[in-house]
Amino acid sequence: MTSTDGTLITPADLAGGGVGGNDPDVQGKFGIFGGRYVPEALIPALDEVAAEYEKAKTDLDFIREFDHLLRTYAGRPTTLTEVPRFAAHAGGARILLKREDLTHTGAHKINNVLGQALLTKRLGKRRVIAETGAGQHGVATATAAALMGLECVIYMGAVDCERQALNVARMKLLGATVVPVTNGSQTLKDAINEAFRDWVTNVEHTHYLFGTVAGPHPFPEIVRDFARIIGVEARRQVQELVGRLPDAVCAAVGGGSNAIGLFHAFIPDEGVRLYGYEAGGRGAETGEHALTLTQGSVGVLHGARTYVLQDDEGQTIESHSISAGLDYPGVGPEHAWLKDSGRATYEGVTDEEAMEAFALLARTEGIIPAIESSHALAGALRLGRELGPDAVILVNLSGRGDKDMGTAMKYFNL
Amino acid sequence: MTTLQAVFDKARAEDRAALVGYLPAGFPTKDGAVRAATAMVEAGCDVIEIGLPYSDPLMDGPTIQDAVHRSLENGTRIADVLRTVEGVAKSGAATLVMTYWNPIDRYGAERFARDLASAGGVGTITPDLTPEESGPWLDASRESGLGTVFLVAPSSPDERIAKVAACCTGFVYAASLMGVTGARESVSSAAEGLVKKTKAHTALPVCVGLGVGNGAQAAEVASYADGVIVGSAFIRRLLDAPDEKSGLVAVRELAEELARGVRR
């Protein structure tokens, strides 16, 4: 898939061209999902972003600049690592990790952020705002803002600020202002509400650098396209390594950007099963989880129709997960569509299962994963036992676990 | 039941703007909301918007967020919202529900429209429902004889204003500024231009909301708009009052001040 001039990405890679049939319609709908449910005041800004992105994604200068940043700044392509000692616990199936943890800033979020920061400059805006849960998107946004000389404000739930204090310090060091959000559940969903309030007030000079494939159109499409490189690279790397496509592709799903980034290049490959793992928290039966796709119902949250954790009158139910990055009661509309169409399968992984996989990968392979990514690892262990020793399973190791040491110290009494 | 048409006809006949007050159901208490809204009507509000409290009010500033949060803590359900509408409609005001879309979506559009109409409500204001997604709600509202009010904003280009206005019955809600709800020091200078632009696309009355909180501001807006919408300032009076009784006095005083404003 590498283009002839040696770049990582081509216009086709970015635009999802050649994949076909999985782009939203003009109103941003994936089937019945997606669209726009936002104050009218924001419609012109969303139109502006969509129009600029349409131009950018076929503009070779834009693509070259993005590609250059991905290679020389983010550290792409990221490697593929086979983990046999870990896989021994999965019935002997071959498990391959796509190492997004090795990117600059330590998680896949950098891909989307660099693309959108370039888009911000094209839009002629000087300020970016973003929401963050685990802090990874906030750190990535603050990083890109520092790199490109943009003013940066990050909204983060007060609860998350506490459990991810290290990332708060990183953002501040990078020159961003971090605003702790103290209303509602004080987590990611409330940070998104607050970021929207800022955006509607400052939209003239501010771009909302949305961090996941949720939200109103065109965010689900733009964020997916900038994250798509993960699957484009991995698809080629798996073929080079094992001589064929994988049997299954696994990723953790909160809002769903690392998952869609990995899945998307594989959607036309009918023999490749797609598995998304949501945060099962303390267990589906306890009600304390973030099982949006597996336990939620169809509704509207943060500007899009999708699956939502909500009560019988449409009030959002607060989610729970040991990983801040998956602690979200909504999910990207394209995942809702992939679920309903049967193309992808979504399952829950509890806090406990995720933490076991977290420790297991560290002990067996010397890799400390993010707790978010550990949900995908736990899913792969389960899937390996199911598919048997001949199976090849690709897992998105979406981020590294440095930020999770506080949680790990508490959990394992380290 | 007083219709929106009757309200604006009467205001026009009296050569003044209509006064629209907002209060969330269930705030300060379930019954207290009916008493406060009734006081607002007795002191001069022509139209009352009853807010349907929602967990993620992303268009609202801190004052309404606070009130809505308390309302949800009070256990307010849609049945309570409908009972509030019923109570307030008896006071003689045209009574609307202002709500984010998801609660109606979940309750069922047709069912909500029917139940609101039976409670004496005259329509809804839906701040996050775009014309593109409004089809089912327009159908359900028409079926039940409810008005549908949507918002235009200072950022709205002419073609959007035309599109939004075409979905409206009763009146068009012009958001005076780019931002969230809440009282401001002064009324945005964008408001007058927006009203003018909107009137080029519709014969409906145009009411201005966001950032209006006192008599002088009401008078200023009344000089170019058909209605003046006030929400956070009423809530602020209730939040600041030591008890409900003094809260009601404060709300009544504010409504009287605003009513004088729209008559200047």
TrEMBL record, chain A:
Its EC number is 4.2.1.20. Residues 73-399 form the Tryptophan synthase beta chain-like PALP domain. It catalyses: (1S,2R)-1-C-(indol-3-yl)glycerol 3-phosphate + L-serine = D-glyceraldehyde 3-phosphate + L-tryptophan + H2O. Keywords: Amino-acid biosynthesis, Aromatic amino acid biosynthesis, Lyase, Pyridoxal phosphate, Tryptophan biosynthesis. GO terms for molecular function: tryptophan synthase activity. Its cofactor is pyridoxal 5'-phosphate. Pathway: Amino-acid biosynthesis; L-tryptophan biosynthesis; L-tryptophan from chorismate: step 5/5. Signal peptide: none annotated. The modification N6-(pyridoxal phosphate)lysine is found at residue 109. The keyword Lyase applies. PROSITE patterns: TRP_SYNTHASE_BETA. Belongs to the TrpB family. Tetramer of two alpha and two beta chains. The beta subunit is responsible for the synthesis of L-tryptophan from indole and L-serine. This is Tryptophan synthase beta chain.
Automatic annotation (TrEMBL), chain B:
InterPro entries: Aldolase_TIM (IPR013785), RibuloseP-bd_barrel (IPR011060), Trp_synthase_alpha_AS (IPR018204), Trp_synthase_suA (IPR002028). NCBIfam families: trpA. It comes from the Bacteria. The keyword Cytoplasm does not apply. Its EC number is 4.2.1.20. The alpha subunit is responsible for the aldol cleavage of indoleglycerol phosphate to indole and glyceraldehyde 3-phosphate. It holds the Pfam family Trp_syntA. Pathway: Amino-acid biosynthesis; L-tryptophan biosynthesis; L-tryptophan from chorismate: step 5/5. The active site is at residues 49, 60. It comes from Microbispora triticiradicis. The keyword Ligase does not apply. Keywords: Amino-acid biosynthesis, Aromatic amino acid biosynthesis, Lyase, Tryptophan biosynthesis. One of its GO terms (molecular function) is tryptophan synthase activity. This is Tryptophan synthase alpha chain. SUPFAM superfamilies: Ribulose-phoshate binding barrel (SSF51366). Tetramer of two alpha and two beta chains. Belongs to the TrpA family. GO terms for cellular component: cytosol. It catalyses: (1S,2R)-1-C-(indol-3-yl)glycerol 3-phosphate + L-serine = D-glyceraldehyde 3-phosphate + L-tryptophan + H2O.
